[in-house]
Amino acid sequence: xxxxxxIQCKGISKIYGSLRVIDNLDLVxxxxxxxxxxxxxxxxxxxxxxxxxxxxxxxxxxxYVAGHDADTQSLKxxxxxxxxxxxxxxxxxxxxxxxxxxxxxxxxxxxxWKEKATNLLEYLELKDVDQKRVGKLSTGMKKKxxxxxxxLHDPKILFMDEPTIGLDVSTxxxxxxxxxxxxxxxxxxxxxxxxxxxxxxxxxxxIAIINNGKIIAKGxxxxxxxLSMGDIIEISFxxxxxxxxxxxxxxxxxxxQIGLPKDxxxxxxxxxxxxxxxxxxxxxxxxxxxxxxxxxxxNSNNIESIKIEKPNLESIFLQLTGKRFExxxxxx
Length: 332
What we know:
Blueprint: E1 7-16, E2 19-29, E3 34-38, H1 45-52, E4 60-65, E5 68-69, H2 74-79, E6 81-84, H3 96-106, H4 113-123, H5 139-151, E7 157-161, H6 169-186, E8 189-194, H7 197-203, E9 206-211, E10 214-219, H8 221-225, E11 231-237, E12 252-257, E13 275-281, H9 284-296, E14 303-309, H10 313-321, H11 325-331
Parallel strand pairs: 3-8, 3-9, 6-7, 7-8
Antiparallel strand pairs: 1-2, 1-4, 4-5, 9-10, 11-13, 11-14, 12-13
Helix pairs in contact: 3-5, 5-6
């Protein structure tokens, strides 16, 4: 079965001293799919990619990539994969074609490298700049060049570790289109790590959500969103107040004070401080009017802002962990 799967992880753990960065992780990824590993910074995404690409050994468990053991057959694994990291790996003093030639030599492609390079340059619309120094290229062009270099040796699997981090919105959307097109045209399996929720939703056939080294949910974007237990309403207040009475409103499933531990006594706020509450409700549209009425009965000017969120991948993460990505990253 292993050889019929692009990637398979069996009980993978990675421990550095007392820190367990990956915890007994199981994963199955089919060929020709786009798979997204979604989680906040520090969740274990890059550590898993390093194991799958043979750059580091797992403390426990087995990982198979393109039918090969990532630990004991790492050279075979590297023959079958391409990798695009979050950091630029190009030599900006060389031309586009010179960078590609170095990659071709590293993979021992031989005389056919130039024809492959030309085809990829034409497909990704870089043929007109093939003799231009990389340092003169736009960010979008550099990303295209990285993709060309990663695809040059015809990998079965392409790893992309936070490929759009630090990019502006238009360049990010450009890269999304390229990823979709490459998967469709070349049939390459894409393993994508990201902490951009909309990116995983837009690109991936299947997603695993990771936190503290553990997979806490997996499935298609549609399947994951179906796990939602309702809408989210977040309200910021200028001043704190006792809010335990709001739990009596029909349709409110949970109230938590943002910035406090999930198990803290959130109904006992500090005095003379602003406050932000998160309400999980059956239906925001149905409940909002009554909720605002109950909140403002004693202080009509206390509400600073209201945000309503329908079920999405972030709300699923929030439901499973009690925090948003940025709230976890702030703590870390």
